[in-house]
Amino acid sequence: MSQSAPSSQARIPFQVNPFTNIAVGSPWTEVPTDVTRINDVAFQLLWRGFLQTLVGSDPISLIVTGQAGSGKTHLLSRLKKRLEADADGEKPWYVYVRCHTSARTLWRHLQRTLANDVLQSSRLEQMVTADPKKLGKARHLGVSRALESLASGRHTLAAGAWLRGEPLSDADLAALGIGVEKEEEERSRETEAKHIVQALLRLLSPTPVVICFDQVEALETYRGEMDGYHTLGQMVAELVNGEHRKLLLISCIVSEYEGNLEKLSNKADRDRWLQGTATLKPIEWEPSVELIKSRLDSASGLRADRAKHPDDPLWPLEKGRLSDLFDKTGICLPRTLIQACRLEFDRLMGDVNPGPKISREDFLQQEYGRLLSNARVEWRKVGGETVLEESLPWLLQNSGMTVLGALENSANYANLAVRVSAGEARLMFCFRPGNPFTARLRKAVQFWSGNPELRILSDASIQPRSGSQGARYLEQLKRRGARQIHPLPEALAALQAIRNLTATARAGELTLDGEEIKEDEATKWALDNLPPQLEELRDELIVKVPDPEDTPRTELLALLNRHKIMEAEAAGRELSLSTEEVTSCARRYPMHFGLLEGPPLVLFEAVEGSEAQAANA
To answer: Can you name the residues that pair with 248 across neighbouring β-strands?
Structure first.
């Protein structure tokens, strides 16, 4: 709503527009008003499912489908509110999972959201403090140690981060009493995440748990990918067959993508997932009047004037301007109706000259900028490996490459397989320092024969120490032809931001003045406006013969990561390179290195301003 002064034609006082909140972002968002008759049939299905979990012995899994803007997330919010108010006995646990993830990271994503939601209050710590013996139900040493720390008030930040699956230093792990991963251990992060989820659910049992998977269609890391649906089907089946028997699982999906659920190859998984379906529909005029009235009644600045019009529930809005939405079909989506009311309310306040209308391109830039600011902080919490697994397939698939579904013999060491016209390549992500990094390299040495080509994507700041076993493994792989790539922090943040932008568009949640911006438009905009750091990463991923002049870059990155700033001559001595070779490398990669011409010539590690701000956030 414009902040300009109201015009002399205003019919109502200038105030907060009660229709500003068009969509419910998540069930944790406060809902302005709720008309329970809207989507009541669907809600009753969910509520009966919850009651059935209380008295039965088997978990329930239900699907909610409907057009974008039909109220799926609002329905989850209504359920959360009802659970908090009406549930008999101990208050159930409520977990909300927005599926902006991938088939390769789904259990990690569930671990992060489950831990985050149950730790929002001190309820879990209080439960452990009251009865420490309950920790034995988890049957997982790491979970028990982390919760012991939370309950005692020691190392609480590290304990919460570990439960959410965030990367921790060896010192933090030792403080929690959780073993540091040994070099010979090769733990699957997905398998470990699954074990932690199962342990937490055992601990919460027999208190009912409601897990809501929203925007299921966002599991497609690129348009048409089916892996995410299959993996979520397997996950739901495992949860249904798990030890926590008072479990309600709800999956929300836009109706356009509902058919993908029927394509699941495993009929048993599909049957466990699709135990019941609720379809949300557009609303008719009568319940629409109730929805509009409830929003207007919440506007404190209108109460006195509305009391003067007891026979007009829509005052000050005009029925004719809104009923036009229902003329053709007799029905309208709730979001479309609320948007129309918002514009009409602005008009009645005299807010008729809000300034130039923002273009769709500028709006996309604005949304991307907002998501990018969040991603600059958030990607470090989930880790570079997770960001690449969830977001890189979009870049690959939209840059002329093909993401291959099965890794076959390379699954022991690679995260992704890709094909371009020149052939195939395997991509390996190494973003965990120390033993996990070394273990990944050891697997590649053991199982990679030199074909297809191998790209090792890693953080320049966590390279194996010179002379270490990890360094020797890395050198072996490079001699066989592997190529190391260091994505810049801004590239990782941009990938995550673009992933969230396109996923939001696919869910129908990206709108400008009531007009939906489709996924294809958001994708085209993103490709046309790739930041240079992401363009560099894309170009390096193209399967080609490594540039021999690129060899010093990795060593120089590692050197400057340790020293931050040093004379070019000194850097050359440490790397056994001439000063000219060092400065030539720095000039070729200005996004990685800074160069002060001197004399003397001085090199420093380039840090983008936005990234530096994020580091201090």
So the answer is: 60, 210
Pairing of strands 515-516, 483-485: unpaired
**What mean pLDDT do residues 22-35 have?**
74
| Structure-block tokens of residue 448 | 């990679």
Residue 503 lies in a domain: yes
pLDDT at 8 over 70: no
Question: Do 505 and 554 fall into the same domain?
Answer: no
Q: Residue 240 and residue 242: Cα distance in Å, rounded?
A: 6
The answer to whether 539 and 469 are in contact (CB under 8 A) is: no
Q: Closest by alpha carbon to 94, among 23, 161, 28, 162?
A: 28
Mean pLDDT of 272-279: 96
Whether the CB-CB separation of 519 and 505 falls below 8 Å is answered with: yes
How much of the chain, in percent, has pLDDT values that exceed 90? 61
Residues 6+ apart with CB under 8 A from 336: 69, 325, 514
Q: CA angle 226-232-233, nearest 5°?
A: 90
Q: How far apart are CA 189 and CA 487, in angstroms?
A: 21
On whether residue 408 sits in a domain, the answer given is: yes
Q: Report how many domains make up the chain.
A: 3
pLDDT band at 611; cut points 50, 70, 90: very low
Query: Is the same domain home to 464 and 593?
Result: no
Structure tokens at 513: 């003045």
Average pLDDT, the chain: 88
For residue 426, what pLDDT is reported?
Answer: 93
Whether 48 is covered by a domain: the verdict is no
Strand pairing category for 276-279 and 402-404: unpaired
* Mean pLDDT of the region 432-452: 91
Q: What is the pTM of this model?
A: 0.87
Q: What is the mean pLDDT of residues 54-61?
A: 90
CATH assignment of the domain containing 437? 3.40.1350
> Does 317 lie in the same domain as 302?
yes
pLDDT, residue 551, reads 61
Domain co-membership, 380 together with 459 = yes
> Does one domain contain both 442 and 530?
yes
DSSP state of 403: E
Domain membership of residue 509 (yes or no) is yes
Residues of 191-207 as b/e, b for ≥16 C-beta within 10 angstroms? ebbbbbbbbbbbbbbee
Q: What is the CB neighbour count within 10 angstroms for residue 423?
A: 12
User: What is the per-residue pLDDT across 85-101, written as a single tens digit (0 to 9) for each?
Assistant: 875 667 899 999 999 99
CA angle, 217 then 222 then 225, to 5°: 70
Range of the domain at 531: 356-546
**Enclosing H/E stretch for 30:** none
* Residue 525 confidence (pLDDT): 98
**What separation in angstroms does the CA of 394 have from each of 219, 360, 500?**
12, 22, 11
What amino acid occupies position 272? R
Is residue 4's pLDDT more than 80? no
Confidence of residue 182 (pLDDT cuts 50, 70, 90): low
- pLDDT score at 6: 42
**Smallest Cα–Cα separation from 69: which of 519, 507, 518, 363?**
507
Reply yes or no on whether the pLDDT at 279 is more than 80: yes
What's the one-letter identity of residue 80? K
Q: Coil, helix or strand for 452?
A: coil
Same structural domain, 534 and 604: no
The two tokens of residue 580 are 């000219």
C-beta of residue 530 within 8 angstroms of C-beta of residue 538: yes
Residues 454 and 562 in one domain: no
